[in-house]
Amino acid sequence: MNYFGYDIDEKLLALSDETEQNLREIYKKHESIAMLWSARVLSAFQHNRVATNDFVEVTGYGYTDDGREKLEKIYAEIFGAEDALVRPQIMSGTHAINLCFTGMLKHGDTFISISGEPYDSLRTIVGISGDSRNSLIKNGIKYEQIDLVDNDFDYAQIESRIKRGGVKLVEIQRSRGYSHRDSLCIAKIEKVCKLIKGIDSSVIIMVDNCYGDMVEDREPTHVGADVIVGSLMKNLGGGEARTGGYIVGRHDLIEDIAERFSAPGLGKDIGANMNQLLSFYKGLYNAPSVVCSAMKTMIYSSYILERLGYDVDPKYADLRTDIIQTITLKDEPSLVAFCKGIQFGSPVESYLTPVPAPMPGYPDDEVMAGGSFISGSTIELSADGPVVPPYTAYMQGGLTYEYGKLGILIGINEILKNKK
Ligand SMILES: *Cc1c(COP(=O)(O)O)cnc(C)c1O
Which of 188, 283, 324, 417 could form a disulfide with 240 if both were Cys (CB 3.0 to 4.6 A apart)? Predict the structure, then answer.
């Protein structure tokens, strides 16, 4: 059937209408979260007297940059924290997390991941995979891990380990990443922060906040985390930031991290802005609405794909704390067809056909779809998955609900065509 010029299966369009009818209340919940974050962002812009002068390029050493300093104050304010580091020189989420570890941990310190095995790229940093000569373990830092039980923290084991003493830092990964587990919602993070701080308030709690930013009405820093970290190619870049990452938290810790970011003695006082400040401000300004669009796009796809018989996680009515949706497509042709459809529905490189291929750093062949404006941006609609049973696609993003919905319809239409 002709849907604004796109040929989409008639039954799929009927299902789409039903889906939107039934999701109204859930959409409203996310719209009200976006309202709350918009008010926080707007008032922080106003308190900090943002002016057009704050967007100008500062070159060379970048010793004085009002725009950069104000932006960092704004990040701290909206996250209920003391300080922040928000820079184009932070190249990715992984880089930001590495800065935190190396800034806060010293030879002989112990840190624990309490959300099980960390995200793929962090394992090499820690030194539990890969053979880097520069991992934390190679630098004399001790690593321990406490796994999740039934998709929640192992509170009893965490309690006894913290009581034994000697723990410098605890790391929590909020989002599931590429693992088959639930993401950890703010209520759970709050409970575990209270537990840890109640035993030993000096233990540093750091949260890998990638994909979680602005999804719920509070952030980990509002509930006891000392430092949180994210990538600007994800939520808070709002699709505008061309690169960058952020770290928000306690002032003394941000100082330590900033000295690792630049050099001891220099800290936050240096760093040309590469003319990126306008996009950072605008990205943050748009982020509440962009994150809401991505959430609605994922909930919409979850509902439709579940109705079509696929295993989806989370389900449409589940509480969400990140922008990720997984869909188990059961066979290789369906996984590839879905990624193809998402690519065909993209604004950029829509004419390319994704095919499974080996990827550096991944054990299996991967198929990836992402026709995004910013290379590798995952706040823009994108999907990928390892080409092994059960053929699960990891999908996220959607800069606007309308484009997200079109992308999903074209993607699902491709699976249906493939089945015929
Ligand atoms: C994306 C992500 C990272 C790493 O961020 P990059 O920008 O890809 O380096 C780390 N942890 C989680 C949970 C992520 O989703």
Answer: 283
Q: What is the DSSP letter of 56?
A: S
In the DSSP assignment, the letter for residue 243 is S
Taking the C-alpha atoms of residue 413 and residue 165, their distance in angstroms, rounded to an integer, is 56
Structure tokens at 335: 């996984």
pLDDT at position 173? 97
> Which residue minimizes the CA distance to atom 5 of ligand 1?
93
Task: Check residue 121 and give its pLDDT.
Answer: 85
Residues of the chain with pLDDT under 50: none
List % helix, strand, coil for the chain (3-state, nearest 5): 45, 15, 40
Given this model, what pLDDT does residue 120 score? 82
Residue 93 Cα to ligand 1 midpoint, Å, equals 5
Other C-beta atoms closer than 10 Å to the C-beta of 30 total 19
pLDDT of residue 361: 67
Pocket test for ligand 1, best of 234, 246, 380 (most atoms within 8 A of CB): 234
Residues 6+ apart with CB under 8 A from 77: 40, 44, 47, 48
Distance, C-alpha 378 to centroid of its chain? 8
CA nearest neighbour of 186 among 159, 158, 160, 212: 212
Nearest atom of ligand 1 to the alpha carbon of 376: 8
Antiparallel, parallel or unpaired: β 325-328 and 392-396: antiparallel
CB of 265 within 8 A of CB of 110?
Answer: no
The reported pLDDT for the residue numbered 360 is 75
Q: How far is the CA of 396 from the centre of ligand 1 (A)?
A: 13
pLDDT in tens, 46-86: 999 999 999 999 999 999 999 999 999 999 999 999 999 99
Distance 329 CA to ligand 1 centre (A): 24
Residues with CB under 6 A from ligand 1: 92-94, 119, 121, 173, 175, 177, 208, 210-211, 231, 233
Domain architecture of the chain: domains with CATH = 2-38+285-419 (3.90.1150.60), 58-281 (3.40.640.10)
For the entire predicted model, the pTM comes to 0.97
| 363: amino acid identity, one letter | P
Distance CA 269, CA 340 (A): 46
